[in-house]
Amino acid sequence: MKTKLQIACMTVLVLVFMAAASQASPAHWTYEGDTGPEHWGELDEDYLACKNGTQQSPIDIKHSELTASDTIQPMEVHYGKTEANIQNNGYTIQVGLKDHQNYIVLDGTRFMLAQFHFHHPSEHQIDGQHADMELHFVHKSGDGKTAVLGVLIKKGAENKAFESIWSSMPATETEEAVELEDTVDPASMLPANLHSIRYSGSLTTPPCTEGVSWIVLDNPIEMSQAQIDQFAAIFPDNHRPVQPLGDRKAVSVEH
Ligand SMILES: [Zn+2]
């Protein structure tokens, strides 16, 4: 039988554990106001890189300042039809992939596609200009490194590749991801020409972790105004402003 002292000790332990657990949950952040991008670094000590980092994303990609590389191998893209789920996580619409058949190969390292999501307007700028939207394909390597493939989206023709996602897009935050009825094909979401700009950057959301290999495609894809409007009605603005390039070099890679 447990003594009163033992029960009291256990109660204290449970309370300490609960306090630690609640402290461990990351601070809430937003895209505007007191918890907006300029304050992210002050909201949580885990977010310090947002303020103190020197290799942050996104950036303004200036063509006149790009270094051309003929030594970097073109990225290999191995994307195809796959089952997926969809979630409105309060910050974006995110499509999660269940299998591990989609991957890219970057400088000999394989990065598996884990999820893709959208920003409105674009996060990266090209020569000082935002695109209407930006699509981020987020990949992880076996040793935990992150590579993000960014595709700019401009207003134009309706894009059928996004039909199943757009017709299932949750307008409000969802606790869990919901299975998509149709498969998605990330390959159909890329432009024909995969000429890219590469640089070393960070996550564009807290905790703004650095060491992310960025590949931003030079050529945009299109979506109709109605498709852009549908996303914008849920997320009027979910972009982080561009960050200083500092002493980094962005490299242009032919495909
Ligand atoms: Zn993103």
Automatic annotation (TrEMBL):
UniProt xrefs under CDD domains: alpha_CA_prokaryotic_like
Keyword Methyltransferase: no
Catalytic activity: hydrogencarbonate + H(+) = CO2 + H2O
Domain of life: Bacteria
PROSITE patterns, A to Z: ALPHA_CA_2 (PS51144)
Domain Alpha-carbonic anhydrase, chain residue ranges per copy: 27-254
Coiled coil: none
UniProt xrefs under Pfam families: Carb_anhydrase
Enzyme Commission (EC) number: 4.2.1.1
Signal sequence, renumbered to the chain: 1-24
Keyword annotations of the record: Lyase, Metal-binding, Signal, Zinc
Class of the enzyme per the UniProt entry, highest EC level: lyase
Similarity annotation: Belongs to the alpha-carbonic anhydrase family.
Name of the protein in its database record: carbonic anhydrase
The species this protein was found in: Paenibacillus medicaginis
Taxonomic path: Bacteria, Bacillati, Bacillota, Bacilli, Bacillales
